[in-house]
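Appendix C: a fully annotated inverse folding record. The material below is reproduced so that readers can follow the format used throughout the book. The structure is listed first as tokens, followed by the designed sequence.
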């Protein structure tokens, strides 16, 4: 598994279809175009700078080196006669075929012209760049792939989309694809079935952090493209992507013309119209047996509340997982699931990820824990200092709680103050958990020393300082959760904290290595004094770290932060391999891409099923959360449970959040959205009938913390 986007080949499953032939292949660009568009009827012939949109597309494709033919494929519907009329007038070859089975239309067009390979372009992309097309064609011509595209990750602008595939792949998809979306959108089967050798071409400058929308679906998209043409008037007919990027650099306001539109909305909408995914036949017998044994010897039947029976619909959910590979896991009965909790965040690359597993196995053979420090402690510290903006020195722990508690102790020692202001969740230790409703066993004197404040509410932090003048040692906070930080909020927190003589600690146990390799502090450009890392840093091995400013970190010489497994070598080896892999493979960009697809798909499906008021996927793409609400707006654990129940029955291990990993590829996201579409239909039905609770096949899930 070299990462899901590098190559989707499943060994032993690949067809003997080759893009590489001894003789040069005849490649035909087939532009699909039709007049009927719900949002912008007749768009393909809409005027852009005095020419129809389709003419821009054809002209640009004719400028591509390495292409043998350009033709337009439209439907037989009389409404599409104007497309044929345009082709006749402009001397463009035209094929007419099925209106909705566009896969069939492509197949027949390619067959007719005798193409060995096809370049698929849609007629609503008038900014298609001949050089980008040529690059994807060139990669395809180099051989070894059945399907080459630049669309599996959003490294190019949306609207510079190129797909190249062999005729043999097209024919196989044409024979085997059955779902309406697979027929309508031509290539989902090639991308997702695992039957083809798939390859993604990355943009040399990765643009995935920006959503650049250059495709035309809405009137505002057309206005944007017209403005671009006007702005690049002097650049000749086939100005390229670089010219458009330069223009947007000098006139960024142009992007506001069509800002805020969802990418691939049409595809997600068509998923809503697909037949539901049937529930799988599953046995949970062994899960039940293990639960009985656990009940007798393990309080709560779990080591981690969020993994326990209160978080999953009992009777429907598996109780124990036995193994995992990539983003898939298998329960003790052998049932397979696509996992979205990913062990609550740590497994950021995938289960049994080769580079990490191999590093660990190599280390196992040399020993795991020693009487003196191991060089890995130094190597990994150096890597963290390079990676995380605030890191000048590093100390390791095992769980995130070690890191947050270590940071708090160091801050108290550094400032000689006792009070801690906190915002978010920070782990199981006394100093924090006393602020929650699970505060049994925490002495009152300890509780008084930690005071919560509210996110995006600077006044609530000002009150903490006002009520504890000169006593606050540190402000510890999750820099961001699912709520977007208000403009300047984090900067104001830092300013206020420092003005009051306290230290700022970012709890990056969740956001570290996920929002950016250097964490939320890197993504949001706010550097704290100390930061706490955990979860994802070792791809599932137990490791956490406190990092930060040298003068504060030197307090660790004075305080007591020391435990037997502090320098345990397997986790250090795992982290070194994992962080290196994340850096080299640009893993975070992948998390943003795939997470955004899942989030967009979820929200479009919820709208299509009329339940957007009840459920929404929120948060930054690498980690999103699905919220469920009653009509009146209160959180609904019943709706969440029903949704979870229906996902579990169909092979998606949903527990509320999506911790996207590098192993969640387009195939898994599409499969998941099909399952979500099915669960949403059931939810919509239950909401309409008002009987969601009675559809549950086990007790509803419960909150870990009671509402205060
Ligand atoms: C933001 C944050 N901080 C700290 C922790 C505590 O980490 P651990 O459970 O590894 O002790 C968590 C755990 O979920 C967390 O989400």
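Designed amino acids, in order:
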């Amino acid at each position: 598994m070299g990462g899901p986007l590098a190559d989707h080949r499943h060994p032993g499953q690949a067809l003997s279809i080759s893009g590489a032939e001894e003789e040069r292949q005849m490649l035909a660009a087939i532009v699909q175009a039709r007049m009927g568009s719900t949002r912008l009827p007749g768009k393909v012939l809409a005027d852009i700078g005095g020419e129809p949109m389709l003419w821009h597309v054809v002209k640009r494709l004719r400028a591509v080196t390495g292409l043998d033919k350009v033709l337009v494929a439209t439907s037989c519907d009389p409404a599409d006669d104007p497309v044929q009329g345009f082709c006749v007038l402009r001397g463009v070859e035209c094929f007419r075929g099925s209106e909705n089975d566009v896969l069939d239309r492509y197949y027949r067009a390619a067959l007719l012209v005798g193409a060995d390979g096809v370049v698929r372009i849609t007629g609503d992309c008038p900014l298609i760049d001949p050089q980008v097309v040529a690059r994807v064609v060139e990669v395809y011509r180099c051989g070894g792939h059945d399907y080459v595209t630049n669309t599996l990750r959003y490294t190019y602008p949306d609207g510079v989309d190129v797909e190249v595939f062999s005729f043999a792949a097209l024919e196989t998809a044409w024979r085997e694809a059955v779902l309406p979306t697979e027929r309508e959108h031509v290539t989902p089967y090639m991308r997702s079935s695992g039957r083809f050798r798939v390859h993604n071409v990355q943009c040399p400058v990765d643009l995935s952090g920006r959503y650049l929308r250059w495709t035309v679906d809405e009137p505002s998209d057309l206005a944007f493209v017209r403005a671009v043409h006007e702005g690049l008037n002097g650049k000749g007919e086939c100005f390229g992507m670089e010219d458009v990027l330069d223009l947007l650099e000098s006139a960024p306001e142009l992007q506001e013309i069509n800002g805020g539109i969802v990418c691939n909305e049409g595809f997600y909408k068509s998923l809503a119209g697909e037949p539901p995914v049937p529930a799988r036949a599953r046995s949970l017998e062994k899960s039940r047996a293990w639960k009985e044994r656990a009940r007798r010897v393990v309080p709560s039947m779990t080591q981690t509340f969020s993994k326990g029976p209160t978080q999953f619909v009992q009777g429907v959910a598996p109780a124990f997982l036995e193994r995992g590979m990539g983003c898939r896991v298998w329960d003790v009965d052998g049932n397979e699931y696509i996992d979205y909790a990913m062990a609550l965040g740590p497994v950021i690359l995938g289960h049994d990820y080769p580079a990490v597993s191999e590093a660990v196995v190599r280390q196992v053979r040399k020993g795991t824990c020693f009487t003196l420090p191991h060089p890995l402690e130094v190597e990994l510290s150096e890597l963290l200092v390079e990676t995380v903006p605030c890191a000048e020195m590093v100390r390791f722990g095992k769980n995130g709680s070690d890191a947050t508690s270590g940071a708090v102790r160091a801050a108290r020692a550094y400032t000689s103050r006792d009070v801690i202001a906190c915002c978010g969740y920070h782990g199981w230790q006394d100093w924090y958990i006393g602020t929650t409703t699970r505060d049994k066993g925490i002495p009152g004197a300890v509780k008084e020393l930690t005071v919560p404040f509210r996110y995006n509410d600077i006044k609530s932090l000002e009150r903490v300082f006002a009520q504890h003048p000169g006593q606050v040692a540190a402000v510890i906070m999750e820099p961001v959760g699912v709520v977007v930080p208000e403009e300047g909020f984090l900067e104001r927190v830092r300013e206020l904290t420092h003005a009051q003589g306290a230290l700022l600690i970012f709890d990056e146990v969740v956001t570290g290595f996920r929002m950016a390799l250097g964490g939320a502090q890197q993504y949001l450009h706010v550097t704290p004094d100390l930061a706490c890392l955990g979860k994802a840093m070792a791809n599932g091995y137990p490791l956490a770290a406190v990092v930060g400013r040298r003068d504060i970190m030197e307090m660790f010489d004075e305080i007591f932060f020391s435990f037997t497994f502090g320098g345990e070598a397997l986790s250090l080896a795992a982290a070194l391999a994992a962080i290196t892999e994340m850096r080299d493979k640009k893993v975070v960009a992948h998390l943003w891409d795939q997470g955004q697809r899942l989030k967009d798909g979820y929200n479009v499906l919820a709208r299509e099923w009329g339940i957007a008021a009840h459920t929404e996927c929120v948060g930054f793409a690498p980690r999103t959360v699905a919220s469920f609400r009653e009509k009146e707006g209160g959180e609904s654990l019943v709706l969440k449970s029903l949704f979870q129940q229906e996902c579990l029955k169909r092979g998606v291990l949903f527990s509320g959040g999506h911790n996207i990993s590098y192993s969640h590829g387009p195939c898994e996201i599409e499969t998941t959205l099909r399952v979500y579409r099915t669960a949403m239909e059931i939810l919509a039905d239950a909401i309409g009938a008002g009987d969601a609770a009675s559809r549950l096949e086990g007790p509803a899930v419960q909150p870990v913390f009671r509402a205060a």
